[in-house]
Design goal:
The chain is mainly beta. The chain has a single domain, classed as Lipoprotein localisation LolA/LolB/LppX (outer membrane lipoprotein receptor (LolB), chain A), CATH 2.50.20. It is built from three helices and 13 strands. The chain has a 13-stranded mixed beta sheet. The longest helix is centred in the N-terminal third of the chain and has 10 residues.
């Protein structure tokens, strides 16, 4: 199982096609523009990230902002087409690439599984995977979940699926807010690999509303997996 940011980054890394369409909104993006600098309480996690695509590494910084029903994220560094920012709202995601004026808007399961596996992934909330241990989630019953190491405040898991070649290793750390992903490594079974390692964590951050609601210009082109 890939997490939200994983699905977005790897879908972009392995290639997308363009089409027309309008970008969706979430509860926060409907807020008047004058209030977009207003600070909101959220958890903030930054990761050191590295993508290996066909043996070529790319490094960047990924930041995530967690709210009870919404995830905002942004990437800083070099991904070929520049920075990215977006959100996950339930089973829907939006990611915008400002430098190329492109955006991705899909159901999470369409980006997670459809490009690589000939199966139907049942709908589930990605935020639960980021904030709960995999073996406590009923939605992951169709996956093989292996607990590889267990300490008082740390758990290591490997997630696989019989019909798919990819594999995900996850390390969770217990915080005052619960279990959070500290390390993630994904491989697609071919030549693509992604590693995320926790840099900083703030359980009580103040995050501007605009972190959850990137403005998509009308001329931006929608891209699909």
């Amino acid at each position: 199982m890939k997490t939200a940011f994983l699905s977005i980054l790897l879908a972009f890394a392995v290639g997308l096609t363009g089409c027309t369409g309008s970008a969706p909104t979430n509860k926060i993006s409907a807020t008047p523009e004058a209030r977009q600098d207003e600070k909101m309480p959220a958890e903030a996690i930054s990761y050191f990230a590295r993508i290996h695509r066909s043996g070529k590494p790319t490094t960047f910084k990924l930041e995530m902002y967690l709210m009870p029903e919404l995830i905002g994220f942004s990437g800083r560094g070099y991904l070929g087409k520049g920075a990215l920012k977006g959100w996950i709202d339930g089973d829907s995601l939006l990611v915008y690439f400002p430098s190329s004026q492109e955006y991705l808007s899909e159901k999470v399961e369409e980006v997670l599984i459809a490009p690589a596996c000939d199966i139907e992934l049942k709908e589930f909330n990605i935020l639960e995977l980021l904030t709960s241990l995999p073996d406590t989630l009923d939605e992951l019953r169709q996956f093989q979940t292996e607990l590889r190491a267990a300490k008082e405040k740390e758990r290591e898991y490997r997630l696989t699926l019989d019909e798919c070649d990819w594999q995900v290793d996850l390390t969770y750390r217990k915080t005052d807010r619960g279990w959070r992903v500290w390390y993630l490594e994904f491989t697609d079974g071919a030549n693509n690999r992604l590693r995320l390692r926790k840099d900083q964590y703030k359980g009580n951050a103040k995050v501007p509303r605009k972190r959850f609601s990137p403005i998509i210009p009308s001329e931006a082109v929608r891209i699909t997996p």
